[in-house]
Amino acid sequence: MNAARASFADQTLPNWRRAVLKVGSSLLAAEGEGLSPRHALNLAQFVAASQAEGREVVIVSSGAVAAGRGLLHRQATAGAAMAERQALAALGQAQLIGLWQRFFSHPVAQVLLTHDDLRNRRRYLNARATLMELLQLGAIPVVNENDTVSVDELKLGDNDNLAAIVAALVDADALFIATDIDGFYSANPRTDADAQPIDEVEALTPAFFAMAGGAGSGVGTGGMRTKLEAAAKAGAAGIETFLFNGTRADTLARLARGTLNGTRFRAAQNRLAARKYWLSHVPLEPGRILVDAGAARAMGEKGASLLPGGVLGAEGDFRRGDMVEVVAKGEGGERRVARGVSQYSAADIRRIAGRHSRDIEAVLGYNYGENVIHRDDLVLL
């Protein structure tokens, strides 16, 4: 890289509570075969320092296929059959989780997701609930695409975009993308000596995508373009993206202290506004949840979740994960008060209506949490 080229300016990170850290194969793959802890250690130290500050981090990590190749002492080949890549991923997943676990005193949890898990609303909610519970337990979720069962036409395709989806899934405040160059440039810095660093991107226009090149290494599946796609997806959900060089220990040490040396992609709006907009515009399913005046007041005045104790009943035949209307019933008649994503089906709600949250499992034989609608999945009308 040209030594005279301008460097990225230091920027103060906004305060964040929960983040997704995406780590690509190029940072984990050994030069010969298998995985190397060389860069993973510094990345893990950033995660540990963040946890010590009371923050939560979900890692989206590539590297399973490279780890599988290392076990079999097999070199990467272009155009490898889908079944071969799936088999290598299956062999390498345990190695990948083992690599991360060696750096943490907290337990590491493996979470494998597919396109169908994120397209199907009920499975999406189950994945969200699992990740939230893992964070509540103090564990470090390590997410990867479930390559062993994915098919070409339904693959998420790259972990940059998966990381953006996971960031929205867990209501993250920030998406950190660790790569093997210092940030986003006006051209490919490996081939263009005139490439200039871009410290901040207010809005991702087609001109920025035109600057992005292809994949930077033979190990990963994503290049700079997929990182811009991820930043655009995250930005639409109100999440800012921070791109930096994960091979540099000094960059990661500064990141842990709240300073970015790389590129900041701003979100179009704040995270809460983006989620509330989505909740306000998702089509409603036929059916309603009927609540008493106390529940309506708690949601409206205190921002509370909807608990079964305040529910009078349910109308229709909606399913868990559907967007439904919440209607208050009282002496003055009915009043629309909210809409939200129901954690339970209409049939389940009719059975637990008026009961205490602790009774849900005794009544149904299972439970999806104490809330009928969580406050994060609810918008007032």
From TrEMBL:
Annotated ranges, domain PUA: 287-373
Pathway the protein acts in: Amino-acid biosynthesis; L-proline biosynthesis; L-glutamate 5-semialdehyde from L-glutamate: step 1/2
A Pfam family reported for this protein in Swiss-Prot or TrEMBL: PUA
CDD domains per UniProt: AAK_G5K_ProB, PUA_G5K
GO molecular function: ATP binding; glutamate 5-kinase activity; RNA binding
EC category: transferase
Subcellular location: Cytoplasm
Annotated signal peptide: none
GO annotation, biological process: L-proline biosynthetic process
Domain of life: Bacteria
Positions contributing to ATP binding: 22, 179-180, 221-227
Cellular component annotations (GO), alphabetically ordered: cytosol
Alphabetical UniProt keywords: Amino-acid biosynthesis, ATP-binding, Cytoplasm, Kinase, Nucleotide-binding, Proline biosynthesis, Transferase
Family: Belongs to the glutamate 5-kinase family.
Name the UniProt record assigns to this protein: Glutamate 5-kinase
